[in-house]
Amino acid sequence: MDTKSKNRHKLGIVLTIAAIIIPTLVILGNYKMIYDKAVNEAKKTYKTSLSDQNFLGSFLETSYILYNQEISEKTGEPKMSKEDLEEDAEVWMDDYEALYPYLDYRIEDASGKVIGRSTANAGKGLTDDKFENYAFGMAITYDERGKADVKIIKGDEKAAQSIALRALIDNWDDSMMDDTYGSVKTPKERTYIYGMTRKNIEQYLNQWYWYGDEAPNDAWYMMLISMAVVCVCAWIFVQIESLGIDKMKIFSQPVEIVLVIVDMMLVVMDNRLNWIVTRTKGLMQFYDILIWLCVFAITYWAAASIGQVFRMGLKRYVKERSLIVASWKYIKPALCYLKDKIGAGLRKIYHGLTNIDFTDKSSRAILRIVVINFIILAVTSLWVYGVMAMIVYSVILFFVLKKYFDDLKKKYNYLLQATNEFANGNLDVEIEENLGVFEPFKEEMAKIQKGFKKAVDEEVKSQHMKTELITNVSHDLKTPLTAIITYVNLLKIEKDPERQKEYIDVLDRKSLRLKALIEDLFEISKASSNTVTLNIADIDIVNLFKQVKLEMDEKIQEANLEFKMDIPEEKVIVALDGQKTYRIFENLIGNAAKYSMPHTRVYVRIAVEGDEAVVQMKNVSATELDFNPEEITERFVRGDLSRNTEGSGLGLAIVKSFTEIQKGKFWIETEADLFKAEIRWKIVDKKEDIA
What we know:
There is one protein chain. The chain has 4 domains: 139 residues, no CATH class; 155 residues, no CATH class; 98 residues, Helix Hairpins (Orthogonal Bundle), CATH 1.10.287; 158 residues, Heat Shock Protein 90. The strands form 3 sheets. Strands 2-1-5-3-4 form a 5-stranded antiparallel β-sheet. Helices cover 59% and strands 12% of the residues. It is built from 23 helices and 12 strands. The protein is elongated. α1 crosses α11, α16 packs antiparallel against α17 and α20 crosses α22. With 691 residues, the protein is an alpha+beta fold.
């Protein structure tokens, strides 16, 4: 090492020593100030604590304890022992025992006769009522009903104490106390006179408060700021490589050791700082110099050690300065082994406990057997004739278990028989007998039976509908086709141009009718097979309904109908396929135009209810509504069963299919001749919610 490097290294050492000594001198130089502040805060606390309800309440509690420790001359009730009082009024007893060594008292009955004195401060005993030798004096008088009257006779905070005591007595609930503490009696016809010297007050309160022996917050702030300054200095110095501090072995210790030592130092300072800065009443001693030199030396050492992370990088620092990382190759296999063993054991216990169903009769029966067996084993193990008892018990247990399992087997066979009947197609088989532990299987069998019956009924209905569908399709396709064939034949032989034109018009209508029917069949087929492609966009259903109604206004006029619209002025935006929704509204309006009674009103309502868009249509039917509302939306089902109107029977089926593939709901209600159709769509923000 050259001379220049040596000089820089010496400079680093000097700076290190200075960073430790300077904050030490700062702390020591403020000892007097810290102590004076502690004393001033102690005086404030002493004054406040004298009128504290916790302090004054201890005297009320003491009255109860003293009363219950005497023998009542009137009732002859025995006094309560210390053990009884600790059991019934533990908190009061603790407060009494803490106050008693510092308290002088005198007890008088209703006539003024002294029936008890304190022995804690022998020779005093409150022989005078002027409290000349005391800093605090009070008297608590209880009448024949146990109502208390308190008087502060002497005290530095007499007025505040009187107010606090009055508030305390007003809130003192004797009935609650009796309920809480059972046999503890309320004092009656007694006067308790208490006195405490200033020295005894300070000693007593010093148990709960600090009086000049606890460092104020300034001491903590000064210590923490000084430690922070030392840390900053250490971090700066260790980054300057020329000072050579980073190469000193003392600053290259494992991070775990550093943290442990720092933690120990902080714990010691937290517990002993009060004693350190107040024990000498503001005077500095050699012992204090050593304490603070050690504190700041450890602080500097820890900060310099950890501060090297900024120079080395976190990854390298942890790798080179961590005991855990260095030992990880040994620790990891052990941890994995423990993890597997403990995990397997816990999982086994967990599964065992969670799989116990105490609502199950078998589980409850096993539990009863185990508990009874445990009790019998425990009893017989203590009995001289335990072996004979165990033999008798084992025989009885055998027959009990045999009877139980015979019954179990019988119920199992009954369940098996019912299952076979069910498998053979007998869906009406009923299991009336109570199957005990197999009762859940009985309930599940009933559910399966119900499901199969429903499936069979639906299959029969489906076959019936298929037959009806073929018949209706044949009829509806045959009608316009027959008309077309007939008029084509007439057209071939007709010579009159006017009649030919009339036939051509008929052919045009029937062709369009046939085309519309085929298109409806195609649409309903795609909807049934879920092959419909949706082009979802934000649609204003209010405007779309207005558009459809306007385009169908001619049909509405021909039907002599008046539409009454209850629609909002603002837009109702729903993510829908515009073409499919147009077809829904077209079919609803067309259905109303076909089947409504002429010269009546059709009521339309579009509204937003919660998060749903609602479309309602109501009209009066021209014919009697004698159909099932649930069946009217099936394919080729018409409201006019005579099939006199021009309709495919697919209109409402298309409405239902197109509504449902767009995540909506469609249903029909009837009341007398009133026909009501309602559609509900969720108002959604994203197209993906439907698509």
